[in-house]
């Protein structure tokens, strides 16, 4: 049995910018296994790390080395863990993307991840095999500044919260439905979780159970999340979303949220009542405990951008010390934003700028422009998501290994399209030809080239419907140059790009019937996934792979081998 957890600090001395800075090696041992849990009062099989979901929080300082030994104690499932937001400079094989950077971790085996956290900020980790993130395999990564350095904003205490949605069906049941003919959609989630806790209405079960433990609102697993605050103090809340499907709003009753960080980059501060957050995004907000201290206040999350009338809001409690932690607020929870009003969501996206004094100016022009049209299609009668009418499929041999060892038969050597029929495609209508193609071909980028990506949203296979897609890029941060409504105009919209103070992020939404423009430098040797962070959408083909500087990738560790054509390498 693997010990619950231990942390060994080994001082190292690194010289950065001419100053002596103490870096550390931080070691973790994790056992991943199945357990029965009731995070929303309904008991189901989940995936835990050392018995917990969310899993242990990794805490480190900039330039520390993280070593995580992961033992897969699942009986029948492989795993892989992605370190979301960590660029893996010099260690592309430890990105944790099964089928792209490594073979999966087999049941009964142990795999060691080792990487440097090179930037301070708020990050997450999660499963990157199948749809396992939806089963509870996720957690936080908090990277602080080196000793002696300070943030450009003041606060008294630092706390982190992970938001999630929750399904009662297993990920296997969901995957089977998504692959069926006819198509069986997973539906809306049964609950919303605030740091692993939610509340399902047990009386709403369609078939009452004779097992009193199946759904039990007195189970301590589902007692509301409670954040205890000291009156007058300011709190940095690191808020992350790892939802399987849902875009969310997050608010604390009666308190303003000042946004100061996004995906590890400082934001020019702005104040919101509701923080709109999409799967894969992380934010830091400052909250001052400046309300009546004799009462407690609601913390809520609500689904936006899609109708979910049967999903109750996520609810937690902001507890003013010394009030009793179990005391509920005297009010009803605050009203949720209108789910289908995209204007405030677009306004927040456009408000996020790099903080003065911390601006990384983007290159003035790019070397290459790729336009990705996001559509819903069918392939051999099965519902799929596609990019430029190509639905992505994983090869049996991970790309990084195939590229490094020149295994040309491991995947399609023909590149996917760079765009779509811009002039004739109507993004507001269901396309009359719903058929798509599939491929595991990749986009090869010239090393150190500047690449623009335009994400273009369109109508789904349902009339007058377009969905929000949060896109996440592995191995890089990108500049967010702009957002827009309607069809991207390649002749005029680039003139509106923000080249002065764009925020850098690793995850960004493309809004319904809208577009989002990104720019990044292909300067990190490796093979990197770029995909919609909605679990079912990636499972159904909504992703691509970029390859760059493969000749500069070091010797691959043998631990990532063992599948496809890697056997015997």
What does this structure look like?
It is found in: Secreted. It is an enzyme of class 1 (oxidoreductase). GO terms for molecular function: copper ion binding; L-ascorbate oxidase activity. Its EC number is 1.10.3.3. It is a single chain. With 569 residues, the chain is mainly beta. The chain contains four helices and 33 strands. The strands form seven sheets. A six-stranded mixed sheet has the order 11-10-13-18-15-16, with no helix packed on it. It has a six-stranded mixed sheet with strand order 22-21-26-31-28-29. Strands 1, 2, 3, 5 and 7 form a five-stranded mixed sheet that branches. A hairpin with a 6-residue loop joins strand 2 and strand 3 (44-49). The longest helix is centred in the N-terminal third of the chain and has 9 residues, at 171-179. It is globular, with a radius of gyration of 23 Å. Residues 1-20 have low confidence and may be disordered.
> Strand share of the residues?
35-45%
* Poorly predicted sequence stretches spanning 5 or more consecutive residues: 1-20
Count of DSSP-assigned helices: 4
Estimated helix fraction: under 10%
Q: What profile does the largest beta sheet have?
A: 6 strands, mixed
Q: In the CATH scheme, what's the topology name of the largest domain?
A: Immunoglobulin-like
Which CATH C-level class of the largest domain is it?
Mainly Beta
When the domains are counted, the total is 3
> What oligomeric arrangement do these chains adopt?
single chain
Terminal CA distance reads 31 Å
Form type: globular
- What would CATH call the homologous superfamily of the largest domain? Cupredoxins -  blue copper proteins
From the helix content, strand content and strand pairing, which structural class follows?
mainly beta
Rg, please? 23 Å
């Amino acid at each position: 049995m693997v010990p619950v957890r231990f942390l060994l600090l080994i001082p190292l001395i690194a010289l950065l910018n001419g100053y002596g800075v103490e870096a550390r090696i931080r070691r973790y041992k994790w056992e991943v296994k199945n357990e029965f849990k009731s995070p929303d009062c309904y008991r189901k099989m989940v995936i835990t790390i050392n018995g917990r979901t969310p899993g242990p929080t990794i805490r480190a300082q900039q330039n520390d080395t993280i070593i995580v030994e992961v033992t897969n104690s699942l009986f029948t499932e492989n795993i892989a863990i992605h370190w979301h937001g960590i660029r893996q400079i010099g260690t592309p094989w430890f990105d944790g993307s099964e089928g792209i950077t490594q073979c999966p971790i087999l049941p009964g085996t142990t795999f060691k991840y080792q990487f440097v956290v090179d930037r301070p900020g708020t990050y997450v980790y999660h499963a990157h095999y199948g749809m396992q993130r939806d089963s509870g395999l996720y957690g936080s990564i908090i990277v602080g500044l080196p000793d002696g350095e300070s943030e450009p904003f003041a606060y008294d205490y630092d706390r982190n919260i992970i938001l999630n949605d929750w399904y009662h069906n297993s990920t296997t049941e969901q995957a089977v439905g998504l692959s069926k003919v006819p198509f069986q959609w997973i539906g809306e989630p049964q609950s919303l979780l605030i740091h692993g806790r939610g509340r399902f209405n047990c009386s709403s079960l369609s078939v009452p159970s004779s097992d009193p433990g199946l759904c039990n609102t007195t189970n301590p697993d589902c007692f509301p999340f409670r954040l205890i605050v000291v009156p007058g103090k300011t709190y940095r809340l690191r808020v992350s979303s790892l939802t399987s499907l849902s875009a969310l709003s997050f608010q604390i009753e009666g308190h303003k949220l000042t946004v100061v960080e996004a995906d590890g980059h400082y934001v020019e501060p702005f104040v919101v009542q509701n923080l709109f957050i999409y799967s894969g995004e992380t934010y830091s907000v400052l909250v001052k405990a400046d309300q009546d201290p004799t009462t407690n206040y609601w913390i809520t999350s609500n689904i936006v951008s899609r109708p979910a009338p049967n999903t109750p809001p996520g609810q937690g409690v902001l507890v003013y010390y010394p009030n009793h932690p179990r005391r509920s607020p005297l009010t009803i929870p605050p009203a949720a934003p209108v789910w289908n009003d995209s204007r405030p969501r677009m306004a927040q996206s456009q408000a996020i700028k790099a903080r003065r004094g911390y601006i990384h100016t983007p290159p003035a022009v790019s070397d290459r422009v790729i336009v990705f049209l996001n559509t819903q299609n069918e392939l051999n009668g099965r519902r799929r998501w596609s990019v430029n009418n190509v639905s992505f499929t994983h090869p049996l041999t991970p790309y990084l290994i195939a590229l490094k060892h020149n295994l040309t038969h491991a995947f399609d050597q023909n590149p996917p399209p760079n765009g779509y029929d811009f002039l004739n495609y109507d993004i507001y209508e269901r396309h009359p030809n719903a058929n798509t193609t599939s491929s595991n071909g990749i986009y090869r980028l010239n090393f150190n080239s500047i690449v623009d990506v335009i994400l273009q949203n369109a109508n789904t296979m349902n009339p007058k419907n377009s969905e929000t897609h949060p896109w996440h890029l592995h191995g890089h941060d990108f500049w967010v140059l702009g957002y827009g409504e309607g069809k991207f105009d390649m002749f005029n919209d680039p003139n509106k790009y923000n080249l002065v103070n764009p925020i850098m992020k690793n995850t960004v939404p493309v809004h319904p019937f809208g577009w989002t423009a990104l720019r990044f430098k292909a300067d990190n040797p490796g093979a990197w996934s770029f995909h919609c962070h909605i679990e079912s959408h990636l499972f159904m083909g909504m992703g691509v792979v970029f390859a760059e500087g493969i000749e500069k990738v070091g010797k691959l560790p043998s631990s990532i081998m063992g599948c496809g054509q890697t056997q015997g390498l």
